Amino acid sequence: MKVVLDLDDFSVVDTCDFELEALNAYFTNFKVNMFTITQGVNRELLEEYKHYGCVYYPHGFKHNFLEMDGMRYETVRKNLLSVDKYVSEGLFGGVFKAPYWRYSDDCYRALVESGFVIAVSREQVNPPPQGVRTYEYDYELHEVWPEQFEGVLRLHGHCTPYVNGISTCYGRLIEKLPKDTEFLSIDEFLGG
Ligand SMILES: [Zn+2]
Question: Which of 77, 93, 107, 141 fits a disulfide with 187 by CB distance 3.0 to 4.6 angstroms?
């Protein structure tokens, strides 16, 4: 069984150590895609949590409410400077998710120019233009997914306390997924 697990809002405030330890203790090859508040982390933190199987993707800048919904092109470009640096170093993967999945047209333009695949929700407001590469999940962590899933099962939740939060849902993963589940990064999924 192959699974892509992504969690939103990874930052110094929410690193979900307890759940990461439990998941790593159970699964033989655990990996989690952390959508990271880029201005809420530092290099040391990102390096440190790699040993839990964390791989990182940018998830907004300060993660203010609807931060990127009305953001102008120049502002996105300016904010992307430090993010692009981490991408070029391999610390962030090549998929971007805006806070609350809300993007302005200018955001789409700037993100695509930086080479990002755009993470979209199942009910995307203001969808990206035709031809833009996207990543979309299948189920949220609190939802019921088929036991025999065809292909790669893409699951989505949060590091933060929430209905699909990992603190609420990590037991479901241990209960429902095989111990030897092959966890993939989103980049591995998109490339494979
Ligand atoms: Zn978020």
Answer: 93
